[in-house]
Amino acid sequence: MELKEKIEKHLLEVQKPSRYIGGEVGSIIKDKSKVDVRFAFCFPDTYDIGMSHLGMKILYSLTNERENYWCERCYAPGEDFEAIMRENDIPLYALESLDPIKEFDFIGFTMQYELSYANVLNMLDLAGLPVFADERGDELMNIVVAGGPCVCNPEPLADFFDIFILGEGEEVNLELMDLYWEMKQKGCTKLEFLRAAAQIEGIYVPRFYSFEYNEDGTIKKMNVTDGAPEVVRKRIIKDLDSVYYPENFVVPFTEIVHDRVSVEVLRGCIRGCRFCQAGFIYRPFREKHTDTICKSTKCLCENTGYDEVSLASLSTSDHSEIDPMLTELIDYTAKERINLSLPSLRVDNFSESLLEKIKKVRKSGLTFAAEGGTQRLRDVINKNVNEEEIMNTCRISFAGGYTSVKLYFMMGLPTETDEDIVGIADLADRIIDLFYSIENRPKGRGVQISISVATFVPKPFTPFQFEPQDTKEMIEHKQKLLMDSVKSRKVKVSYHDPNVSRLEVILAKGDRRLCKAIYTAWKKGCKFDSWDEYFNFDKWMEAFDECGIDTSFYANRRFDYDEILPWDHLDYLVTKEFLIRENKTAHKAVTTPNCRLRCSGCGVNKKVGRECFC
Amino acid sequence: MLRVRAVFEKTGRAKYISHLDLNRCMLRTFRRSGLPIWYTEGFNPHPYYAFALALSLGFESKCEILDFNITDDNMSMNEIRDRLNAVMPEGMGILSVEEQKLKITAIAKAEYSFSMVTDEPEELMKDVEKLLSGESILIEKKTKKGIKTVDIKPDMEIIGCEKTDRSVDMIMRLPAGTQTNYNPTLFVEALKKSGAHPFEDEKFVRRAILCGDNTVFR
């Protein structure tokens, strides 16, 4: 029986079957007899989530521009379909050809969050491939690669992958495929290919690197073989206006998480919030011009038929042409009856004219990431926002008709004290007072403040990479303190599960010794860990125990400045000296101005060979 | 304003598009086509279009009805058809476009075909005949007020019932429209419940949407 028939036989037994059969508008079909290299682009989560990911849309279209390469999509099946696949010998397949991904030259994963690691193993296994790289043979095929933010510390995944691609993929992915095709024609082995690939900037081949450890568990020494570079530098695209951007997206039938056109407006961030990994690993800051953005918007809306478009960036309001850009965009979207959504707006440059523009397109509440409850703590984390600015923005919003405000905070930040926690409740109270002090506030409705508190996760390549995470006891104490401090019924507080954050920090800051624990956890049935209904902290802890891993070594220990970190051999352009300097400045509660005001000397401009701002 | 009635097909992979998803899919298809479709004039204007009958997930059809309005009176029906077909997903296509004639309420029934695959077609055929020759065919139908037992026999018209070497294939007409809607899977469930020889039902196709006098609804 052909695979398609096998799939169709059971498709009506599962939830949302259109996720598993392809055929969407915008999906790219090629004649496989005319294709040289096949790439299965896998997202280690369900269709609904993976189809929302912008990076995958870009690289999918870009690869398929090359006539002789075919990039297809692949997602983790839901539990119901996975059971059917395993029962009926349906291997994991790609959605365009419905061919098993085991037949592909490249199997690429995008690693967007730590809690998707176990899904990678599950997908490789569903594909019928050994999960460990060294068990996949030496024939030149099935090269398993990964990219995305998590590969800035890929060590916990090192045993499962052949290649990690560091940084932006638009150029390096094609270089890698070109090399593959060239060596495939010559009849080279996988090892020969990996040796050659390791010479490409941005390509990290983990099997050529090994580690020795000190008695205290820290890294003693890294050894490099096969002529691979001592340090692997991430790739960046220099000119965002000329870089490829898709003119079409695959339009799903079923509803997905971000079911709209996304248009990228800038990369990197000028802010340097000390907890934010994206703010450092995506440097340098680069913008697209208004023209480029408007052209992309128009083209994508026309080709996909979406009636909603969203601007994608780390901080849209930091675009130097934000006002004219929004004016031009809103002109177009209003005329075409398209909704424009603007995530990632900052408190401090939220002008009245900007609000007027947003009000035209958005009626829902406003969300601000204040992150810290007191000014001292906001200075520590370099969230360059003061209370006056928060209040000012709330005042403008209330006067403009908004009655609900959502505030995001983190708990367990470095140097945090009880006073900072109580400060969260106090801030909420002052916002309520502000609301009732406004003459022209919206009448007839009360104000609603939602406080959402996440547990801080220190991440590699941030000034807080050295910091420990709070223990469970500390977090529980702080949660109770916050609940006791909130007196008003107009304030609602919600928490993220601190156990999730604990697993995140272990996987984020872990080293190669964690590979076997991830394998053990997956064997115990861990998968879809980012889904509340699947997350099983106890099983993960059992797996760490069985592998002799002390999780507090990664989660609750301060890493020394002069310690060799598991990711020290990867170069994300910001220097370690800068991160240490910023860490010290943080502990003095001193802020660092944003990159536009003054260069903070992170080292990126020197390595890229040009100033970030002229 | 042109009041347009399109007949479209939903076959192949498109049969896995649920009715809810089909709504979204048509909206995007209209937008891609750039046709001047009429928007409602309420507080929240949205493009107006309506499906005459919902088609169950997994059913194929070449007779689905879609109504919408075009604001440009001078546009030809052929242009409307071609512009939609240029941007339709795989498995979906406009077969014909004409002005709306009958009211949606004129729809009375629909004709379906399906196969029941079994290792013993003869046995199954006997079971089908037995069920059809009985007094009534009682099924449990979920309604807004709860589960209701209904006899579908009086409203069921058997158009064809054939035995092949691997299946029993049936064609039947069932009430459809704004009042009563019976799905052929109700009959299949009743057959299974009657203790019939084991079979797997497949290949459900809606063949026609009909008026009370058995003429094709247009």
Task: Write structural notes for this entry.
The complex is a heterodimer of chains A (614) and B (218). Chain A is α/β, with parallel strands linked by helices. Chain A has two domains: 3-233, Cobalamin-binding domain (Rossmann fold, 3-Layer(aba) Sandwich); 261-496 and 574-587, tm_1862 like domain (pyruvate-formate lyase- activating enzyme, Alpha-Beta Horseshoe), CATH 3.80.30. Chain A has helices at residues 3-11, 47-50, 54-64, 79-87, 117-127, 169-185, 190-197, 278-281, 290-304, 322-335, 352-361, 375-380, 387-399, 418-437, 472-485, 498-509, 515-523, 537-546, 551-555, 576-587, 604-608, and strands spanning 37-43, 69-75, 106-110, 143-147, 163-165, 203-204, 209-213, 219-224, 232-233, 261-264, 266-267, 286-287, 308-312, 339-341, 366-371, 404-411, 448-455, 491-495, 570-571. Chain A has a six-stranded mixed sheet with strand order 2-1-3-4-5-6. Chain A has a four-stranded parallel sheet with strand order 15-16-17-18. The longest helix of chain A is centred in the C-terminal third of the chain and has 20 residues, at 418-437. Chain A is globular, with a radius of gyration of 25 Å. Chain A starts with a helix and ends in a 6-residue tail after the last helix. Chain B has 218 residues and is of the alpha+beta class. Chain B has two domains: 2-101, Alpha-Beta Plaits (2-Layer Sandwich), CATH 3.30.70; 105-211, Alpha-Beta Plaits. Chain B contains four helices and ten strands, in the order E-H-E-E-H-E-E-H-E-E-E-E-H-E. In chain B, strands 1, 2, 3, 4, 5, 8, 9 and 10 form an eight-stranded mixed sheet that branches. Chain B has a two-stranded antiparallel ribbon with strand order 6-7. In chain B, strand 6 (138-143) and strand 7 (146-151) form a beta hairpin. Chain B is elongated and about 60 Å long. The mean pLDDT of chain B is 94. At the A-B interface, helix 9 of A face helix 1 of B.
